[in-house]
Amino acid sequence: MKARAARIALLALDIRAIRLLFVLILIASVSAAYALTFPQLTGRVVDDAGILDPTTKAALERKLADFETKTTGQLVVVTVKSLQGTSIEDYGYQLGRAWGIGQREKNSGALLIVAPNERKVRIEVGYGLEGNVTDAVSKLIIENAILPRFRTGDFGGGITRGVDDIIQAATVDPDEWKTRANKRPDSQPGALDVLVFLLFLFVVFMIIRNVGRRGPPTGPQSRRRGPMIVPVPIPWGSGPSRSSGGFSGNGGFSGGGGSFGGGGASGSW
User: Fold this and answer.
1) What is the pTM (predicted TM-score) of this model?
2) pLDDT tens by residue, 25-49
3) What are 226-252's pLDDT values in tens digits?
4) Which residues contact 73 (CB under 8 A, 6 or more apart)?
């Protein structure tokens, strides 16, 4: 009887020890989460990792301000020096809530988070934008628009293209956007670019042909000036898009109190 009682007591002690260990692990996890420190929200582009040049950063801020003015959405780009030992999913979810990106009533916020040291990127989407910028759409943007550029070291180009696609996805039907994205030849010039280039070649060909027919000038005509050919820049590729209006300066910018539920997608390179 005494041995049986001892075994029961030992078993009860083991159960209590397991419960205590579980509680300690839970407390440690919660404490680690609350110990995260975030960059200060100084504007629509927070380049804490220092990977954007001033021109690209200014262009992004204007584009994001224009998006916010024309819609109810609020998109912020942030680059971080470290994820502080946590996953980019957990970091992004908590950062979005800490900053309160998006309107409080509509939760219409989104974050494009880049952690260059960990080679991670994430699109964090607030509740209000999850209908358009779905997890699948976010993944498609990361895989098709952002990661190919990041792999070549073009952080500015990847972030700019990602912002363009997020803004577009937030303003059109998600199925329509996915169809457009799948049909778009990312590495090939557009039809307008090809047409302009062919027109340029035709003009050059006609000039060379006419000069060949006339032959070399002789006599007094040789002193005449030939026609002045003004070089015309050929638009090749889409390049960074322009936006009207915009937000100038970082003073007074803040989130609108929006909330996040973990929607979005992540990627690595």
Assistant:
1) 0.63
2) 555 554 554 579 999 999 999 999 9
3) 444 444 444 433 333 333 333 333 445
4) 67, 102, 108, 109, 110, 128, 129, 170
SS (H, E, C) 41-84: CCCCEEECCCCCCHHHHHHHHHHHHHHHHHCCCEEEEEECCCCC
